[in-house]
Amino acid sequence: MQITQLSSAYAQQQAASIQRTISQLKDRVESASRSPLALSAIASESESDIALVERAILDYFPEVISLRVIPIGDMGTAGFAGGNSGLRNHIELDLVRRASEGENTQPESYKFEDQWLTSIGARVLHPRIQQRSAVIIITIENQRLEKEMRTPTGASGKFTLIQSFLPAKGSQRTQVIAANGSGAESEYTRYADVPDTNWRVGFSPSSAMLEGLALSPSPLYSVMGLIVMAIVLALGFLLWFFPRKLKSEINRVISASDQKSTLSLSIPELVSIAKQLRRATLSTLRHSSSNNWTIPEAEVETIGSHPPERALPETRPKVSSAGTEADLDLDLDLDLDLDLADDNIVSGDPQRQAGIPRHVFRAYDIRGNADTELTDELVRKIGLAIGTIAGERGEQTLIVGCDGRVSTPRIKSVLLHALMATGRDVVDIGLVPTPLLYFATRRLNHHSGVMITGSHNPADQNGLKIVMNRETIAAGGIAEIRDRVIEGSFSTGKGMLTGEEVIPAYVDEVLHDIAISIPLRIVVDAGNGATSDIAPALLEELGCEVIPLNCVVDGSFPGHPPDTSNEDNLAQLTEKVVEARADFGVAFDGDGDRLAVVTGSGRIIRSDVLLMLYAQDVVSRNPGADVVFDVKCSRLLSSLITQHGGRPVLWKTGHAFMKEKMRETNALLGGEFSGHMFFGERWYGFDDGIYAACRLAEVLSTHGESLDESIGKFPETVNTPEIIIPVDDNYKFTLVDKIINNADFSAGKVNIMDGIRVDFSNGWGLIRASNTGPALTARFEADTQENLDIIKEEFRAQIALADPTIKLNF
Question: 22 falls in which pLDDT band (50, 70, 90)?
């Protein structure tokens, strides 16, 4: 009985594994059949074009030995020249015939030149040209299937993959099309059908396996007895120990309810109870006492520039959890260590930081007022620090790009001289969007660089984005640069300066990657930023009709501010799209790493909805793919990714953080609510607004739907744009910590990955500190306007508990 059960289990396991392999391969073939490459093949009458498309699609199927795109004419397969259009045999010919007639075909195995092969076919229909169709047929070696048929214990039996077929006359016949392992068919052989195929898997246990299973089961019973005994003893100990531990913890909570000392609890579930009890007890004591609370003198001095009324505490618990112990810090919640509270500012000795504006060194870049903060002296020191650190990491050459801001030429000149003074060589790629610096670190022989840009910030701002060994450096790297600036310890040398043109290579690679089957009319608003020249030209090269708007580089940004996440800045684009009857419009921020989109009807698409469209496209071709998105995105996005077979990954806001997470998870797609889009499928995984716009054009031209129609299929919620709440740079992270420590969102699920996001049954809300400016950012979403208002009110109340002086604009 045990032997036959194991044989059946092994057969069923391998049948499911083979079915999964074939199913995934069929899904990919069907997705390829809907790709722009396949559609362009069936729209073309040129055999050379079809051959080129076959080679291009084959790159996405490294496991197959051949791939054919077979156009089907009015006569069907009867019109094939020579009878088979170059197919191997009548089996492939029949597979193409049945697929072309719309039949749901199964994989077919056959022997060709003494080798077993399997072919899979998929029908291709053009969305706009009804009379033209084709069949994609791919072929794999059955050795691939043999490798999958393995038992957990090695050579313990033999697997056989058997194909059944009906000859023209006679009864059903079978063929062994793949086999692995050793063993002979016996009374213990068991079979399992492979779903959606005419195959089945058989397993025959080996003689060694039969002998092993025939041994006495006594040792196994002894081990199982010991395990059961251990479980009983463990449960008995818990039943004796836990009530005593719980009683002890409750007594500690009660005895400490009127004290301000730190209380450590071993049972984290008691923290919220202790928190509420402490609040109620201290509140009662305050109201019943004639003495007012006072702040120790040392604490008043430490508060610094905060007004006294902001620091006066209403004593509230501060909760944190690590390992198995939860600490309830019931001291006065003054958040005195401002350096440590702000992960946007590098810690260090304040006496050594004189003259260096702390907030210039941010979470993942360096940014500040170009004239008053990014002075020549500070830029020179930053350049010396970057060059020194690059040399220590073995990076001899740095690529430097820049945007078109008025202050950029001065900063660039100082930076280039500083980098070369450390002995680093510099490759100047000129005025380019930031994505082209990232692209240069992938295509050139040099993998590090600096981009001079203020990104989406106002015209009087500027900054630096730094790449080391193809990775955008985040908080730790920025901290290292600032520490080196403070230390003043730099390497010396004489570097060389050369120039390199990277735009043609970038355009060429995008043109080879993107295929637009139907020309589209697109309004391009470059916002007078770094994309002004390249974006319209590239889309025109792809065959689109482009209507340019603010497509002249001007660092004063006369058209509108360069921040595309502010929907007020999209008013010109919206008006122009409707006026021109365009298919859609796109807007780029100052350095081109963000994208904003407007539909043909003039509707602004928020980036999490746009990400749904990209996710639907990418995951359909790559089942199981990870999609990373930030805490500001709709939770409908998570549901959509899951529905299409992907894995949603929620992560921190920030382009450097997002790229780190995408590398960690090997994600094929990522996106931020601010408009950063990251494609790991067919691209390099960095944020690129221009490439994202091209991918959008490809999706729409392939599906044959308007953008309004495509997004109209997604569920809708009531939600807000990103809300900016001005807060001083030196206080914003401290304030968020106070909100987290004091808030009590008992009705929702709290996530403090990045600020505090609370998910309720009918919506969610978020408050976090901006990494790019002196502000908090907030966003809210709900199923109805009434519930949205309730969630907003809940957040207003909790923020007021932390600091009632903060002026909220929602």
Answer: confident
Least confident of 31-35, 93-97, 462-466, 678-682: 31-35
Given this structure, which CATH class describes domain 1-215?
alpha beta
* Residue 487 token pair: 């230390």
Give the range with max mean pLDDT: 26-35, 434-443, 467-476.
434-443
* Chain Cα centroid distance, residue 195: 34
State both tokens at 648: 């949603």
In CATH, the number for domain 350-499 is 3.40.120.10
Q: Are 19 and 195 in contact (CB under 8 A)?
A: yes
Catalytic annotation present for 367: yes
Q: What is the pLDDT of residues 55-64, one digit of tens each?
A: 777 777 788 8
Look up 261 and say whether it is catalytic. no
Q: What is the pLDDT of residues 162-197, one digit of tens each?
A: 998 755 445 567 889 899 888 888 888 889 998 888
Q: Which of 145, 147, 183 shows the shortest CA–CA distance to 163?
A: 145
| Cβ-proximal residues to 444 (8 Å cutoff; 6+ apart), any chain | 399, 427, 500, 502
CATH class assigned to 719-802: alpha beta
Whether the pLDDT of residue 792 is over 90: the answer is: yes
What is the domain partition of the chain in residue ranges?
Answer: 1-215, 228-329, 350-499, 504-702, 719-802
Using N-to-C axis directions, what is the helix angle for 607-621 and 2-33, rounded to 10°? 120
90 is catalytic: no
Q: Match 């908080």 to its residue by tokens.
A: 475
How are beta strands 425-431 and 584-588 bridged, if at all?
unpaired
**Alpha carbon of 182 to those of 121, 142, 208, 314, 687: distances in Å?**
33, 18, 10, 76, 52
- Answer whether 350-499 and 719-802 agree in fold: no
Active-site position among 200, 279, 367, 482: 367
- Per-residue confidence at 307, pLDDT binned at 50, 70, 90? very low
Catalytic residue among 676, 695, 768, 779: 676
Strand pairing class (677-679; 647-651): unpaired
Token couple for 455: 């990104």
DSSP string, 240-281: HHHHHHHHHHHHHHHHTTT--S-EEES-GGGHHHHHHHHHHH
Q: Which fold does the domain 504-702 belong to in CATH?
A: Alpha-D-Glucose-1,6-Bisphosphate; Chain A, domain 3 (3.40.120)
Residue-wise pLDDT for 380-400, tens only, equals 999 999 999 999 999 999 999
Q: Which of 20-24, 298-302, 330-334 has the highest mean pLDDT?
A: 20-24
Tokens of 243: 């009530």
Write the CA distances from 687 to 268, 361, 374, 427, integer angstroms.
Answer: 40, 21, 25, 22
Distance, in Å, from the CA atom of 14 to the CA atom of 712, rounded to the nearest integer, reads 42
Contacts 24+ apart (CB under 8 A), 59-66: 60/28, 60/32, 61/28, 61/32, 61/138, 63/25, 63/140, 63/144, 64/138, 64/139, 64/140, 65/117, 65/139, 65/140, 65/141, 66/138, 66/139
User: Of 133, 407, 455, 770, which residue is the catalytic one?
Assistant: 455
